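Q: what sequence does this backbone want?
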């Protein structure tokens, strides 16, 4: 794995970002912190890539990877998915029945919006499209929420790369950027998750609380 990570960091371009974000967003484990912050940093230090396009390409890759999980889960069904997660091959991909069950429980608690919020939650981000497929969620809302969630997370990662570029001028390699990004990404992701959760609670309250009040007034 270390050799693969080193190759990625030495060959970062739009295609590498796309392919490895597809991998990261599917059931194959590969940290997005290794991809987006170094790519954003490279976009700022040279003319090979642009920062906005790094975010766009990374989000497209995340969507494609999520679709892999979604359709595999939808076509294969719950028994096969759980059997695979508990198999030796599944464990090689760092899957387990407990992880899939955790993602399903998260999906049940938060409904369709979990495909948005879940993209910001460590240990849920890569797997949230599995319960969406098992529940046969409509593809339109699934892609919309996945794109918004993945776009938000990739923007966070790109901003980490930007912050490293501004705050640490001594950093000279993509490998150093990836190392620093791993330090900050989870904390920032949890902060973003809190903000998004508060915004969603406010939106639901404004929408449904108002309807409830109007219903009581009409009665």
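A:
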């Amino acid at each position: 794995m270390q050799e693969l990570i080193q190759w990625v960091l030495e060959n970062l371009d739009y295609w590498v970002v796309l392919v490895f974000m597809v991998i990261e967003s599917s059931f194959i484990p590969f940290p997005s912190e290794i991809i987006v912050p170094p790519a954003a940093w490279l976009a700022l230090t040279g003319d090979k890539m642009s920062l906005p396009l790094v975010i766009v390409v990374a989000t497209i890759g995340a969507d494609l990877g999520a679709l892999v999980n979604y359709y595999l889960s939808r076509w294969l069904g719950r028994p096969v998915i759980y059997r695979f997660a508990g198999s030796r091959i599944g464990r090689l991909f760092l899957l387990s029945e407990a992880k899939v069950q955790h993602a399903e429980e998260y999906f049940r608690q938060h409904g369709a919006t979990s495909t948005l919020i879940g993209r910001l939650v460590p240990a849920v981000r890569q797997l949230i499209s599995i319960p969406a497929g098992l529940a046969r969620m409509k593809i339109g809302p699934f892609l919309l929420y996945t794109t918004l969630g993945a776009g938000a997370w990739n923007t966070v990662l790109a901003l980490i790369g930007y912050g490293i570029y501004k705050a640490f001028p001594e950093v000279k390699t993509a490998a150093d950027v990836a190392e620093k990004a791993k330090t900050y990404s989870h904390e920032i992701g949890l902060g973003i998750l809190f903000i998004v959760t508060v915004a969603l609670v406010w939106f639901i309250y404004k929408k449904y609380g108002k309807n409830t009040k109007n219903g009581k007034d009409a009665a």
